[in-house]
Amino acid sequence: MHDERIRRSVAGTNLGNNRDSTRQHNLSTVLGLVHSMDGVSRAQLTRATGLNRSTIAALVGELAQLGLVLESDLDQAQQHGRPSIMIEPSPGALALSVNPDIDVVSVALVSLGGHIVNPVRFHTVRPPSVAEVVNIVTAIYTGMRTSLPARHRIMGVGLAVPGLVDPVDGTVIEAPHLGWRDQPLAALLSDALKLPVIAANDAVVGARAQATFGAGRDVSDLVYLYGGASGIGGGVVSGGRLIRGATGFAGQLGHTHVRSGGAQCTCGSTGCLEAEVTREELIAAIGLPAGETENLEEAVLEKLQDESASQEVGAIIERQIQLLAIGLKSIVNLLNPSLIVLGGFLRILVRASPGTLSEALRTPGRRGPWENVAIELAPLGEDPILVGAAELAFEPLIRDPAGFLRPQDDDAGAPSQPM
C-alpha cells in the first residue's frame, strides 16, 4: 500500500532522471514524496522515481544539508534484500498557519509531513478586523519564534480565509461574515512578520490537506465540505488534482441552492446551503454559551439524550440533514466523486443520526452517481485547515528546495534564518 501511494504521488509528473540539468526537479520530486508520505525509504524512492541508488543518496544528502530531511533507522518492513534507510521530513522545517474566523483566530506552526506543533486559538468577542488579526498573529508568532529550538526555520505563512481570496496577491476580496472587503491581509501580515504570505480560501486548503494527508489521500475524486462559524465552504479534487477554476474561485459549494424561497444568503441569493444549514441554529437549539462553541458536537449529542429537549433538537438536525442531502445530490451529480469528507459542525449531523444522510442521498430503485459514494468525517477540530494552510507556504519550498533556501541579502520575503 505504501508503494502504491508513492506511485500515485508521482503520477502525472515527469519522473526524475540522472542528468545534471534536472537536479532542481529531482530535489523537488524527492522532497515532495518525503513530505506527502511523512517518511519513505531510499528503496521506495528509487523505485518511484526511476533514479539509481547513488543519485537518490546524493539528493537525500543535499536535502539533509538544507535541513529539510533526516535519515533515520532502517526500514525493517522491507521483505527482500538489505533493509533500506528511512528518509523523514525534518521537524525543523516549519510553516506558520493562520485561520481567522468570526470568533477565533487560529495560529499554529506546522512541520513538513503535516505535523501541527503548537496550535493557539485566540478567542474574540466579535469578528476581528484585519488590523486586529495582524496584531494577534504578530504577538503569537513573536512568542513562538523566540521559543524555537536551534536550527528550526519558518519558511513562510499560509493564510486560510473564510471568504474569496485573490490568488495573485492574496487580497481578501470578500469575507462577508467577517465584514471584510478588498482587504490586503496577506501583504499586511508579510510586512509585520517579515515572511512570505500565501492566502487561499479555508475550505479549499482543507480539501488539499485531506487529499494529501487525510481521508482522501488514496482517492482521486473527492469533495471536502467544511461547516464553520462563517458558513459552509468546500474543495474539490478531481482526477487527483485540486480544482481551482479559471480565476481560483472554484469550490464555493456552500452556495449550492437547496430551498426555493429560503433564507437570504450573504452572496445575495436565497436558499443557499450555508444559509439553510448553520452552526448558529444548532447552538441556539441547545443554548450553548458563546465561550463553549468548541464543545458543540458533544453538547448536541448529549442534548439528544435528554428526553425533554431531544424532540426539538432532533427535528432541527433532521431538517439540516435533508437540506444537506439536497445540496450533496447536486454536487454528486455534477462532480461524481467517490468520497465526500465532512468537517466542522457538519460532522454533528452524521453522528447525531447515523445512516440518515447516506439514505437521503439515494433514490430507491434507481441507480446513479450517488450509489457508490462513501461519506467520511474529517478529524474533530480545525486541524485540516491549519495543515492545508501550511501547504500553501511549503509549495514554493518543495518546488525548488535549494533555490528557495538560497541566502538572500536583506530580503524581507525570505524565510527566517535558523535560530
UniProtKB/TrEMBL annotation:
Annotated spans, Disordered: 1-23
Domain of life the protein comes from: Bacteria
GO molecular function ontology, one term from the record: FAD binding
FAD-binding PCMH-type domain span: 117-355
Record Pfam families: ROK
Polar residues: compositionally biased ranges: 11-23
Stretches that traverse the bilayer: none
Gene3D superfamilies according to UniProt: 3.30.420.40, Winged helix-like DNA-binding domain superfamily/Winged helix DNA-binding domain (1.10.10.10)
Family: Belongs to the ROK (NagC/XylR) family.
Name of the protein this chain belongs to: FAD-binding PCMH-type domain-containing protein
Native species: Pseudarthrobacter sulfonivorans
